[in-house]
Amino acid sequence: MNCRICHGSRLEPVLDLGNQPWANHFLKEEEVGEEPYYPLRLLLCMDCGTSQLDYTLKKEVMFSDHTYLSGVTRTLSEHFRRVAADVDGRFFRDRVGKSVLDVGSNDGTQLKHFQALGYDVLGVESSRVPARVANDAGIPTMNVFFNFETAKGIGRTFDVINASGVFFHLEELHSFTEGIRKLLRRDGVFVVQFLYMKSIMENLAFDQIYHEHLLYYNVNTVEHLLRRHGLALFDAYLSPIHGGSIIGFIGHQDTVPPPSARLEALRKAEIVNKSNELETYRLFSGKVRDKKREILGRLDSLKAGGKRIYGFGAPVKGNTLLNYCGIGTQYLDCLVEKNELRRGLYSPGMHIPVRIEWELETLPDAYFVLAWNFKNEILENNRALLEKGVEFYFPIDLREVA
């Protein structure tokens, strides 16, 4: 294959997580054991430094009918509120008739916060159920895939375009980015929120690698893509959301201000830490193998002590971890979820049943926390269980993000 960004052919394999099912395909009982598997391998482009998957599972399979809802988690909604307030306060507070487009808008959680600030809002969401939830909540949402053709059909421009957790999913990467360029006003701001590969490597958060995430950006690599489409990053910061995400502010190349000091600091840190170099990825791969042994050792110890273990959360990324480590019902009785769309389903690959949190009849002795990126919220919400002696084991240890 050629690089998804620069089309170069010098791609080096850096991490192999084996053949895995599509991680967001939670199974009905009759589907258990029938799910297909696909290669889950990470390559590094030696020309532009972008890491990416070498296999593309079609977008129509992954994004037409999934069960993820962004509004389920209070931490994420509060993050979206802060982003909206920051964008409005810095750029558009006094503008009359301001507007925002959210691409990959899910259930409309981000747009609700812009709507509360007086914006005319429009969402584009490819998955049917989240789009219906958003429309039912009064957030106008188109149930389509976004690309250049979609952008032409929308036929208007926006002060703000937001893409949170979608910019690294894109099968139609260049068509999507060209669509953004077309719909962004000359003085508009494109806010892109993406998992930071530098943080993934530092945290050993290998579970954030799965088939929906085709690309893994650092600041220096995402800029290769933007330059190809007449766009430029002028400010960015590292947020703790999802274990480390870049919130980037982008405009048209010929209208953006000079790069901010914090953007320049991020660029420099990537160079100093060799974040886009092959040797760093090879070290990461070895540490992932060590992490697998550490996790299995901890679970073996808990089981040897007669502990009943449940998984906490059924996030998509959790299935990468479960399948790579071979963690099934020999360790975890069930996965405990708040999202009622996953009631009665089973995890792909490991076939662990999903239970709804408030419907549990028996408590575990320990929770194996797959939704580790919401650690603070989980510990706060479960003080009573901690006082009863229920252990919460977080397999991914986050570095603090200021």
CATH class of the largest domain: Alpha Beta
- For this structure, what is the CATH homologous superfamily of the largest domain? Vaccinia Virus protein VP39
| Topology-level CATH name of the largest domain | Rossmann fold
Coarse morphology: globular
**Oligomeric organization of the protein chains:** single chain
Q: For the largest beta sheet, what order do the strands appear in spatially?
A: 6-5-4-7-8-11-10
Kindly state the number of beta strands: 16
| Strand portion | 15-25%
Share of residues in helices: 25-40%
Number of individual domains = 2
Low-confidence stretches: none
Question: What distinguishing features does this structure have?
Answer:
single chain; about 400 residues; alpha/beta; Rossmann fold; 2 domains; 7-stranded mixed β-sheet; 5-stranded parallel β-sheet; 13 helices; 16 strands; about 35% helix; about 20% strand; globular
Question: Which helices and strands, and how do they pair?
Answer:
Elements: E1 11-21, E2 37-45, E3 51-53, H1 59-63, H2 74-92, E4 99-103, H3 109-115, E5 120-124, H4 128-136, E6 141-142, H5 148-154, E7 158-164, H6 173-183, E8 184-195, H7 197-203, E9 215-216, H8 219-228, E10 231-239, E11 245-252, H9 261-272, H10 278-304, E12 309-312, H11 316-325, E13 335-337, E14 354-356, E15 366-369, H12 375-381, H13 383-387, E16 391-393
Parallel strand pairs: 4-5, 4-7, 5-6, 7-8, 12-13, 12-15, 13-14, 15-16
Antiparallel strand pairs: 1-2, 2-3, 3-9, 8-11, 10-11
